[in-house]
Amino acid sequence: MLALPDEDLVQRYLEGGDQNAFRLLLERHQERLFGYLIGMVRDREVANDLFQETFLRVVAAMQRERATYTHQNRWLPWVMRIARNAALDHLRARKKWQDVTPEAGTADDDGDGFWERLKDSDVVDADDLMHLTERGAFLDACIDRLPPEQKEVLLMRHETELTFREIAELTDVSINTALGRMRYALLNLRRMMLQAGKTELTEYGA
């Protein structure tokens, strides 16, 4: 059963009430989901509460007669939407999240936005920051200083390994916008590190 794809495990749970199948789904994805949540709220206890809330919502939604989940080989993105909603509800309640629209001045598909464009020579290669194994406190602090929409795309891409198409659908933006936010996140991280005089970067989670 360990080698079964997500959809087969989902089917076993939905059609036969196989609790082991659901446990495997949870164990397979819990590290990535928890990494996203703790990155969003920066509090392990709160992240743990949100993680549990997420899976209570997941179970409830899957057990409804008209479940919101449909078999499309996309169970993880569906769960991520639930986790994201839980995280944003928490942040909004504490006024730590402000929804951003293109009209508010963000860098969108073709607009410059208020985050200044850096020269092409300043563009950081993804390998410099993303193909890494551990996350240090300094880099965590830099990530936390990113604009919310950039931070979220960064966490979704590298904590949960969602595709940019899935990220775009989750955040209700175009793929170009999702890609642009990722690029700006990398540029801003590079700038903060250079300003801090860091020449050797602590590695960030693969």
In short, what is this structure?
The protein has nine helices and no strands. It has helices at residues 6-16, 19-41, 44-63, 75-93, 126-129, 137-144, 148-159, 164-171, 175-195. By secondary structure, the protein is mainly alpha-helical.
Overview of the molecule:
With 206 residues, the chain is mainly α. It is built from 9 helices and no strands. The model is unreliable at 100-134 and 199-206 (pLDDT under 50).
Entry keywords:
Arc Repressor Mutant, subunit A; 206 residues; mainly alpha; Rna Polymerase Sigma Factor, Chain: A
Shape: elongated
Number of strands: 0
- Helicity, in percent? 55-70%
Broad structural category: mainly alpha
Q: What's the number of structural domains?
A: 2
**Amount of beta strand:** under 5%
User: H/E element string?
Assistant: HHHHHHHHH
Unreliably modeled segments:
100-134, 199-206
CATH topology of the largest domain: Arc Repressor Mutant, subunit A
Roughly how many Å apart are the termini?
26 Å
What gyration radius follows from the Cα positions, in whole Å?
A: 18 Å
CATH top level assignment of the largest domain:
Mainly Alpha
SSE blueprint:
Elements lengths: L5 H11 L2 H23 L2 H20 L11 H19 L32 H4 L7 H8 L3 H12 L4 H8 L3 H21 L11
Helix pairs in contact: 1-2, 2-3, 2-4, 2-7, 3-4, 7-9, 8-9
